[in-house]
Design a protein that fits this description.
The complex is a heterotrimer. Chain B is built from 4 helices and 10 strands; from the N terminus they run ααβββααβββββββ. Chain B is α+β, with helices and mostly antiparallel strands. By secondary structure, chain C is mainly α. Chain C is built from 7 helices and 4 strands; from the N terminus they run αααββααββαα. In chain C, the strands form 2 sheets. A two-stranded antiparallel ribbon of chain C has the order 1-2. Chain C has a two-stranded antiparallel ribbon with strand order 3-4. In chain C, a hairpin with an 8-residue loop joins β1 and β2. Classes of the chains: A mainly alpha, B alpha+beta, C mainly alpha.
Amino acid sequence: MSDHDYRPKSKVGQWFNDRLPLLTLANHLTDYPTPKNLNYWWTFGGILTFCLITQIVTGLTLAMHYIAHADMAFESVEHIMRDVNYGWLIRYIHANGASMFFLAVYIHIFRSLFYGSYKSPREIIWILGIIIYLLMMAAAFMGYVLPWGQMSFWGATVITNLFSAIPLVGEGIVTWLWGGYSVDNPTLTRFFTLHYLIPFLILGLVVLHIWALHVPGNNNPVGIDIKKPSKDTVPFHPYIVIKDGFALLMFMIVFAFFVFYAPNILGHADNYIEANPMVTPAHIVPEWYLLPFYAILRSVPDKLLGVVAMLSAILILAVLPWLDTSKIRSAVFRPLYKQFYWILVADVLILGYVGAMPAEGLYLLIARVATAYYFLHFLVILPVLGFKEKTLPVPLSITEPVLGGSPNLAAARNKESTIE
Amino acid sequence: MSEKKTKRRDFLFTATTAVGAVGAAAVVWPMIDQMNPDASVKALASTEVDVSALTPGNTLTVLWRGKPVFIRRRTQEEIDEARAVKMEDLIHPEKDEDRAKNPEWLVMLGVCTHLGCVPLNDKGDYNGWFCPCHGSHYDTSGRIRKGPAPWNMEVPKYEFVNANTIKIG
Amino acid sequence: MKSLFKLFSIIIIIIASNSYSFAAEKAEYLKTDWSFKGLFGKFDRASLQRGYQVYTEVCASCHSMKYLSYRNLAEPGGPEFSEVQAKAIAASFEVTDGPNSDGEMFTRPGKLSDKFVMPYNNVKAAQAANGGAYPPDMSVLVKARGGGVDYIYSLLQGYEEAPSNVSLDDGVYYNKYMYGNKIRMAAPLSEGLVEYGDGTNATVEQMSKDVTTFLMWSAEPHLEARHQMGFKAIVYLIILTILVYFSMKKIWSRVESEV
């Protein structure tokens, strides 16, 4: 890397940098050569960083007013909403921020799936991302418990009971998680502690995620390796910074719409009823971002196997770099994979939809078919496709498709140089 | 690139940065203001105290806004002592007549103006209060006479609602 | 730019399909024009004040509103009673305070800082007085029901003779908007039940609308501030987005690539 050549201009800067090379780091980040053909799907990394920081800042301020006690949690949330200066604003940003965070992370993950960003040499980046995603789900779940409404309580009860599916030790683990014989005050206080901790773990993993990214550099829509720096790259600042900023602002407009005009639409009405261990709400569903996995859980008629299926659905992603046998990264040059990709997107959306519906009749049947297809995609289609698929010719440089308009056209003109 | 073009671009970048900075500043304010006293705290601004049982020479301590308030029903001796002090002997000159409108009643925040400890009653070199933290002596009017405290103990806004009730705040 | 457009259309489709599925769950509720809906929605002050009257004279005998204080009645964005009026309202309630210096609890007239007086001391007492059914606290009731204001508004007007195939136990009533149609609350409103100070005709429909407006405010006391700030925030974001867009075009014009 050329970073090592960097010398600060001022004497003081040199003195400081020789002892702690922060300026070298800053220089590396600003000059970092980035493929110039990155499209807007690539802006979600920056958007996710914004989401994480927003959640941490609003979360810290909420924690200054929130009381983690079964008797006072619900009241303290109402206190925040009514009396604390701008409390309603901060809480609505935090609550909707969780949804926006997941919206962005799903786009980020599906971008990676489309352009093959998880493939060699970027497997570690991908696995770190899956760990971050798992931690996000844990943080979101525990955060949802904190207002101590009906959905908080029953969500906590149902999710913690998943562990009771483990043979022999399951019941013991659940009791240990609860700190009692049901979800109660000890459960709430430990969930608050962990909810506070996890974002900082995520922050640390994000640093590793970016570090790992900066070793091979960004993938790009064409999916080929590029020399850096070269005429195919632009420095991160100002080119990518301003582009990420533009996309972030568009994202913030959607975010602001939810916060100011539909702050409760993504939540559930029952969570404005204080937790009551004697009455379960008629229709209990998790937050939208967990629905596909909830559908997989419910589609398996056996308790243990249902939990196993749900966990596998996430963990299977961790081994994806080895399940996908194709050497070509970008779906742009994989006509068959591209179709299966969109079928997978539809499959996950269907799973999300049936996850919100009652688990009976036709919905259950659809959920089972969609669950089966989900695993089929990763375990059968992807490995086979790598060997069978006839891919389109891949250009040698990204400059070519960029100059020639759409990558497909450029590729078509370049039929001879097929990469096998 | 012509000079004119450069100027316009510079203006665009300056405007974008400036507008962005204004927005960032606007976002910071709610995060700061949320730490200020909230609406429910502000609403508890006043408290009423029944002083009918208080006899001369005794002090009642009540809580107001989370701080102790001393309500002292002074003896004639104490009043005379407080009123006899010359202004030039005081660190923070204030007339007793101004501190206790009704000479029999002294109402003040029981908080040492040095670093916020609660002074002890009927102690110290001036027959008033003595702060055990760093040795500030107050007289029978609650004025600082000796020690590190810079000011007299503060007299809050209060009024007699009737002969037996004081409303503080 | 093309992929960005694609992205946003996908987001909009997701949101639209979401709200569609929400809409599909709802029964056909009665509709009315709520002044607090929309980009600039504000509460109708007169309706809020009338709604408060309906609440205190009718609902408050069974339903608590434990998160509200009398001071809220005078705060901006609410019914906006004058400070004097709000003090008088507060003073008309007996509030239990204490313990005093003898260790006894005592009652005194309410102050602005007091919470709304509760009709029952606890849930058990409320259940005992209402045949086992707990009249829910109404502070956030609108947000705690799937149909929101339309549901409450309809429910109050939804009492009917039970169809012949439905049998009702004692103390259970038929309401066509209630989940399962059976409700433990008797029809709370009847023509002319309250006498409005401003001369408005107290029809059941009018009272339902007023009290529902009041409940919307009690659940979302900062709704007006939220709408106002939201409009400013979004206008600001659009302006900044446009500025950043042109800055981006300028910067990227230095390299041969499209943004």
